[in-house]
Amino acid sequence: MADLATFRLEMRRQAEDLASRMMASDAGQRLLAFYDQLGERDRLALRLLGLFAGVLCLYLMLIAPLAEHGNRAARRLDDERALLAWLRSHEAEAGNAPSGSAAARSEPLATLVNKTADENGVSIRRYEPAGEDGVRLWLEGASFNAVVKWLFLLEGSHGIRAEEFSIERESTPGVVSVRLTLRG
């Protein structure tokens, strides 16, 4: 509590010091002389305009960004809840799914991975074989939620598991770059 009081006193001292230096300057003296020449109604209008400008600055610099941050967080929470609901609704499928071995599949792993990625809105930037039953992938600018759904589908429906998984957050919220190896 003492720190807050000290902070307030220091801020007040600095504001008073700044105001006194400004008024002592030539520009400050001219501004004060101009204000003194105004009529009472003009002074009142100028004070009200200053108050309005201060409130507007407060809103634009503090309140509006906080409200936008809250809206973005609420949208992200809704997206995460939708993903959780989707994962829970498909939980039984993942537990009861066949192993999906390469011998049981009718199409090659790379083809299946490409097809399911396209169907789920995941864009594969590059891929290469990784041993006999694997494929190494690079995804950039991918939606995190779409990648999670796609990997869940691959494991649950086709028995394809992610190994050597590396994920990096990009500057846009909810967007990631992923490097992984799929086997199955």
Give the biggest beta sheet: 4 strands, antiparallel
Q: What is the topology, as strand order, of the major beta sheet?
A: 1-2-4-3
Terminus-to-terminus distance: 61 Å
Alpha carbon gyration radius? 31 Å
Strand content: 15-25%
* SSE pattern, N- to C-terminal: HHHHHEEHEE
Number of helices: 6
Summed over residues and divided by their number, the pLDDT gives a mean of: 86
Q: List how many beta strands DSSP finds.
A: 4
Structural class call reads alpha+beta
* Low-pLDDT residue spans: none
> Portion of residues in helices?
55-70%
Shape: rod-shaped
Structure report:
This protein is α+β, with helices and mostly antiparallel strands. It is built from six helices and four strands. A four-stranded antiparallel β-sheet has the order 1-2-4-3. α1 crosses α2 (26-37). The protein is rod-shaped. 10% of the residues are buried.
